Amino acid sequence: MLSTFNGKRERLRGFLACVFPGEEAYVKCIQCQSDDIKVIESRDVAEGQAIRRRRMCNSCGHRFTTYERLERPQLIVIKNDGKRELFNRAKLLAGLYQACEKTVVTSLELEKLVDSVEQELYSCGEQEVRSSAIGELVMDQLARLNEVAYVRFASVYRRFKDIASFEQELSLVKQGKHIAA
To answer: Judging by beta carbons within 10 Å of its beta carbon (0-12, 13-18, 19+), is residue 68 exposed, middle or buried?
Structure first.
């Protein structure tokens, strides 16, 4: 059994993966690639849906953060052209970071927004979801978070054809309303 464990340990080095229940996950330092890492702090985030760990490399002293999340069944996103792809949390987060660039919206607020959208998607019980449904969920929450980020996201998501449709969306934001497409 020990030799099997050592073999698995070697194959899994560098990845955040548990080998056996109760065993520490194996992580390499992103600076020096050392596997001599210690956990400085752990806390629940995203209403208990993930664990955030601050880690420090004992070799070079570099500090970094890792997140451990429950792995759920994959959602399939049906794009507007009918193509299907796996739901990609990082892709959604990247789009939101771009929309929120140079605003007061924090990374933590964006993580919470994406967590909330994900929770709604999983709670509906469907394995396939239209990209338009995801976009509307994001738009609803982003409108409450930051108006500038909302308008930036809307300009890409809604693909305004002319300045008039863009001005219409702006006037709705000024009135405190946003429209569902």
So the answer is: middle
Which range marks the domain in which residue 99 is found?
Answer: 76-174
- pTM (global) more than 0.85: no
pLDDT of residue 41: 92
H/E stretch holding 173 reads: helix 163-174
- Let me know whether 26 and 115 are in one domain: no
Average pLDDT over residues 108-125: 90
125-128 long-range contacts, CB within 8 A, separation 24+:
127/73, 127/75, 127/76, 128/75, 128/76, 128/77, 128/78, 128/84
Burial class from Cβ neighbours inside 10 Å (0-12, 13-18, 19+) for residue 142 reads buried
CA–chain centroid gap for 2, Å, is 37
Is there a single domain that holds both residue 88 and residue 167?
yes
Instruction: Return the exposure string of 20-45: e unless at least 16 CB atoms fall within 10 Å of the residue's CB, then b.
Output: eeeeeebbbbeeeeeeebeeeeeeeb
Q: How many CB atoms lie within 10 A of CB 124?
A: 11
The pLDDT of residue 45 is: 83
The per-residue pLDDT for range 55-104, each reduced to its tens digit, is 999 999 999 998 887 777 789 999 989 999 999 999 999 999 998 999 99
How large is the angle between the packed helices 147-157 and 163-174, nearest 10 degrees? Answer: 150
Gap between the Cα atoms of 120 and 70, Å rounded: 16
